Amino acid sequence: MLSFSFLFLRSDAALQGALRVAVAARRPFVLRALLISRGPRAFARALSDLSGHAIADALSLLGAADRAAVSSRLPQAARQRLLDAAPDREWRSTPVPTPPWSLLVMR
Fold this sequence. Notes:
Blueprint: H1 12-24, H2 28-38, H3 40-47, H4 52-60, H5 64-71, H6 76-85, H7 101-104
Helix pairs in contact: 1-2, 1-3, 2-3, 3-5, 4-6
């Protein structure tokens, strides 16, 4: 069973480890919780050190708006690895309005 203790970890290494576990376990709700708790910029930064296939797997588990918010913040090198790993998928980020993150955080 996955624990939500990752929500209290602040290092990029902890976030990246939690991302790896959530992707391997195919847990989109955990990925979404990580995205909400850390924001799309930190989420993209943590994804940027992963392989193109791992990035593709993570993005495929997110909804369209979240996927666009994260993929638009990926560094160019990570975006290129993503395109090389999954050239048949449409990964170009189109501007999608996203709701304010503060409204999505559980209170």
